[in-house]
Amino acid sequence: MTADNIHTKYALTDTPFEMIDDGDAFDMDDDTADDQDADSHDGEQTYTVQASDVGVRLDKLGSTVFDGFSRANIQKFIDNGELLVNGMIVKPKYAVKSGDVLTLTASLENHSEDLPENIAIDVVYEDDAVIVINKPAGLVVHPGAGNRTGTLVNALLYHYPDVAHLPRAGLVHRIDKDTTGLLVIARTKTAQLDLIDQLKDKSVYRLYQCIALGAPHDIMRHARIDAPIGRHSTQRTKMAVKDTGKPAVTHILKAVALHERYSLCDVQLETGRTHQIRVHLSHVGHPLVGDKVYGTSPRAGLTDAQRQAVATFPRQALHAHTLGFIHPISGESMKFHAPLPADFCALMDVFAD
Fold first, then answer.
1. Identified catalytic residue from 22, 24, 35, 176
2. pLDDT tens, residue by residue, 54-64
3. According to the UniProt record, where is the region Disordered (predicted)?
4. In whole angstroms, what is the distance from residue 227 CA to residue 242 CA?
5. pLDDT category, 14, cuts 50, 70, 90?
6. Phi, psi (5° rounding) for residue 143?
7. Which of 153, 208, 218, 224 could form a disulfide with 142 if both were Cys (CB 3.0 to 4.6 A apart)?
8. What is the CA radius of gyration of the chain?
């Protein structure tokens, strides 16, 4: 079955462009938690609150007075004790007072040592301010421990040398190595900061499709999953639903039967926590096919071919198929779609047999 036929048979939810809360930039579904980083800054910076600043939230003021840092950066610094008020740790929502002394000590990574690499990327749209790409499975978004090369950042540095001066080569958000689909990248600092703000100010729209264990009527009992997510207590590479986690809300908009035990789901994020879709659906008993971290083995009731296809599906069956945002320069509402990838279509064909 082709991607076009898939979209005809399993029509996507016709949800209008709307304002939603995607959570913190770089604290999004399907990757290790790490907020958007600015260029490398070393040493201590201070700022004394002026009369005109009184009453402003600390995180908002910090992103204004400490040049080059986003609000997500500032929140991270506050949480880590790297941004103090009068030498004391306070909360991001602290309302500053006249004469307060803000002290910021931060050292953030940059990508000055990352090398351009001629890695093919699927560009869905580009102009002077933004690039939208359809990321394939297996492509790590940015360099980190164990993967300094072969990443999307390396590819961007090759194809778009002008992004080299930007934090994370213009990345605004990310999806996991084995998740496919749409990402927006900024080409200017102004565009990057604007898009990061949109992620926090409810003007980015993201819709995912996934193949999950369960029949539609069972899955749709959990149409709204509201459960906080935090780092797993003992397995630090995993996330988990826990009382001390950050608020996390996932909406399952639609579920269509592929088989009596598996469904294709349209999922919308209201927040953007690490591994959110995978954790939430697993938590309510409907893990994604192929998820080696949060999934389960194939269930009874499958043919040999279906059982083999489910057991050997090489990644979590999760695809970011719709992305919408306000263009940072023109103010126009932009919306993009990426068809389901070939491995999704092949698995769905097996279920249809």
1. 176
2. 999 999 999 88
3. 23-43
4. 8
5. low
6. -60, 150
7. 153
8. 21
Task: Single out the residue of 145, 208, 199 nearest to residue 173, CA to CA.
Answer: 199
pTM of the model: 0.74
pLDDT band at 142 (very low <50, low <70, confident <90, very high): confident
Given a contact cutoff of 8 angstroms between Cβ atoms, the answer to whether 39 and 221 are in contact is no
Contact call for residues 322 and 12 (beta carbons, < 8 A): yes
Percent of the chain past pLDDT 70, that is, above it, reads 83
Q: Which pLDDT belongs to residue 106?
A: 67
Tokens of 240: 């988990």
Residue 42 has pLDDT above 50, yes or no: no
Give me 201's structure tokens.
């100010």
β 180-186/318-326 pair status: parallel
Query: Measuring CA to CA, how many Å separate 129 from each of 17, 287, 327?
Result: 21, 37, 8
Mean pLDDT of the chain: 85
pLDDT grade for 5, boundaries at 50, 70 and 90: low
- Secondary structure (H, E, C), the chain: CCHHHHHHHCCCCCCCCCCCCCCCCCCCCCCCCCCCCCCCCCCEEEEECCHHHCCCEHHHHHHHHCCCCCHHHHHHHHHCCCEEECCECCCCCCECCCCCEEEEECCCCCCCCCCCCCCCCEEEEECCCEEEEEECCCCCCCCECCECCCCHHHHHHHHCHHHHHCHHHHECCCCCCCCEEEEEEECCHHHHHHHHHHHHCCCEEEEEEEEEECCHHHHHHHCEEECCEEECCCCCCCEEECCCCECCEEEEEEEEEEECCEEEEEEEECCCCCCHHHHHHHHCCCCECCCCCCCCCCCCCCCHHHHHHHHHCCCCCEEEEEEEEECCCCCCEEEEECCCCHHHHHHHHHHHC
Report the pLDDT value the prediction gives residue 21, as an integer from 0 to 100: 34
Active-site residue flag, 176: yes
| CB-based contact 116:161 (threshold 8 Å) | yes
